[in-house]
Specification:
177 residues, OB fold (Dihydrolipoamide Acetyltransferase, E2P), 15% helix, 34% strand
């Protein structure tokens, strides 16, 4: 009987996994995109945690580059796309990023090191974008009802009987590199 209860608990709690700590917790100091846009050399090689909505994925032979429209992060590290966008940044990821999963508008959070600035034309204007070298890239589930908080799992009288299913290879997202 004890073994059955233990197995049941493991199965139920296994769905209550959280995003990786580098995604949930901001680094110290928590450097914001606006500060880097004003003075990139002062922040080069510093670690940051930023997120937003994916605009573009470009795959090359040995790495991929993502362009992201930045939004403020909520308490769990997820971009809050209901707020005003803060600008753009790029992320270099070693290896291949599947554009079938990382689609335009997907919400991502990245932890990485500021390595360079790149230039891009936007409506006939040259803009400079900070570039991160990704140490942790996290794709959030598309359905926000499946996630409401830092590892909350189970029934909520306010949201109906939605379950938080955890992350990592599930059918709704949660891929991280």
């Amino acid at each position: 009987m004890f073994r059955l209860i233990l197995i049941t608990l493991v199965v139920l709690l296994g769905g209550c996994a959280k995003a990786p700590e580098t995604i949930r917790e901001p680094p110290k100091p928590d450097i914001q995109l606006q500060a880097v846009q004003l003075d990139f050399p002062a922040y080069q090689n510093h670690s940051v945690r930023w997120g937003g909505a994916l605009l573009e994925v470009e795959n090359k032979e040995t790495e991929s580059t993502l362009e992201i429209l930045a939004y403020p992060l909520d308490g769990s590290g997820r971009p809050d796309v209901t707020l005003l966008a803060q600008g753009r940044f790029r992320v270099k990821v070693g290896g291949f990023v599947d554009a079938a999963h990382y689609t335009r508008g997907s919400e991502v959070t990245v932890f990485g090191r500021l390595v360079e600035q790149s230039e891009r034309y936007l409506s006939r204007k040259v803009i400079k974008l900070p570039v991160l070298e990704s140490q942790q890239l996290y794709l959030w589930p598309q359905n926000r009802n499946e996630y409401y908080g830092s590892g909350y799992c189970g029934y909520s009288p306010f949201y109906g009987n939605y379950r938080y299913h955890g992350y990592g290879g599930s059918s709704f997202g949660g891929y991280h590199y």
